Amino acid sequence: MTLGIESSCDDTAAALVDASGVRASVVASQLVHRKYGGVVPELASRAHQQQVVPVVRAALEQAGMTRADVEAVAVTYGPGLAGALHVGLSFAKAYAFALGVPLVGVNHLEGHVYSVRMPGALGEEQSAPPLPYLCLVVSGGHTVLVRVDEGFRHTVLATTRDDAAGEAFDKVGKMLDLGYPAGPAIDKLAAQGDAGFHTFPSVRQEATEPGHIASFSFSGLKTAVLYHLRDVPERAAYLERHLADVCASFQRTVTRGLVAVLRDAVRTTDVRHVAIVGGVSANRGLREEAEAAAQADGFDLYVPAPRFCTDNAAMIAYTGAVKLAAGHRSEMTLRAEPSLPLGMG
Ligand code: KG4
Ligand code: ZN
User: Fold this and answer.
1) At what angle do helices 183-190 and 284-297 cross, to 10 degrees?
2) What is the rounded CA–CA span in Å between residue 174 and residue 172?
3) Which alpha helices (H) appear in the chain, and where do they start and end?
4) Do the Cβ atoms of 149 and 155 come closer than 8 Å?
5) Taking a C-beta distance cutoff of 8 angstroms, is the pair 131, 148 a contact?
6) Which ligand 1 atom sits closest to the C-alpha of 282?
7) Distance from residue 280's CA to the centre of ligand 1 (Å)
8) Is 64 left (phi over 0), alpha (psi -120 to 50) or beta?
9) How far is the CA of 233 from the centre of ligand 1 (A)?
10) 81 lines ligand 1 (CB under 6 A)
11) pLDDT tens, N- to C-terminus, the chain (345 residues)
């Protein structure tokens, strides 16, 4: 029974996972950042301090367990906000030390990457992807496509040159007064709009790194939306009529670019198992577009249930348990690594 702790950004989360699957998963999202239109690091750390103990208690309660049942503690140690990571890490170390159980540090991105292999993360009839598989991580902080092999080996095939996909949703949402985070609101509006209403520049770019198959850029798209809104006469009236159309056109541009690179990757690597994870993988347009590509090109698509797409501690507990089983274990000297890359094991 592994207790997972996640505090890398603005969600304080705890979960209990064992071989049969997720026994409890609790996420306290910090609403304090909403009025600032983005995450304020200092406020995030303070909120994590207030939430970490109640969230762990709630997870134990949800699973009908006590702390004596916890056999290992897995914790996110990066990447993320330094102060936010420190809170979860200090708590996890103290908890593991007091219980005399092993501690294992987990890379937040690896948590997303392996979330699709966690029992219960996918729909009931779908089994986990076998290794190797391709995995697109699309979240508020990251946009990276990797090939995942045995032994926690990850080969990066594409990354973003500038913003992350989720960040693009949030920034465009801010221009449209849709609050923060804006991904879910844009997703909802896009469903009622005409995606062919306006053509924005593609987010798919030539590869800039050796060995990569492509790269992404979201800043040109963001600027194009800004200029489009600046140049229309009577902006308020225009948005009253066309808000859903602008959202649909923007969203289609993002999802088309992401899916085009996935298709390139399948063609180049001939790996026919493809996962999409991270907050943006909850996007309905992206799921539909990727599903259509999977049918057309004959690959298998794996996307977690929405509650496991956005930040959660179940993916951290699960990945930690897999790492422990493979012989990984962290010392009490484990430090927060705000810029931790997706590692090679
Ligand atoms: O993985 P996540 O919860 O946190 C990070 O690790 O960043 O991702 C959060 C991001 C936010 O940018 C949010 O706007 C975006 O995921 N997001 C969505 C949707 N749900 C969340 N973007 C598009 N469509 C959605 N349905
Ligand atoms: Zn995340």
Assistant:
1) 70
2) 5
3) 41-63, 82-99, 108-115, 165-175, 183-190, 219-231, 235-269, 284-297, 306-309, 314-325
4) yes
5) yes
6) 26
7) 4
8) left
9) 32
10) no
11) 999 999 999 899 999 999 999 999 999 988 888 877 778 888 889 999 999 999 999 999 999 999 999 999 999 999 999 999 999 999 999 999 999 999 999 999 999 999 999 999 998 889 999 999 999 999 999 999 999 999 999 999 999 999 999 999 999 999 999 998 999 999 999 999 999 999 999 999 999 999 999 999 999 999 999 999 999 989 999 999 999 999 999 999 999 999 999 999 999 999 999 999 999 999 999 999 999 999 999 999 999 999 999 999 999 999 999 999 999 999 999 999 999 998 755
State the distance from the centre of ligand 1 to the C-alpha of 71, rounded, in angstroms: 31
d(CA 145, CA 111): 14
- Alpha-carbon gap, residue 173 to 247, rounded angstroms: 9
Question: Does the beta carbon of 279 lie inside 6 Å of ligand 1?
Answer: yes
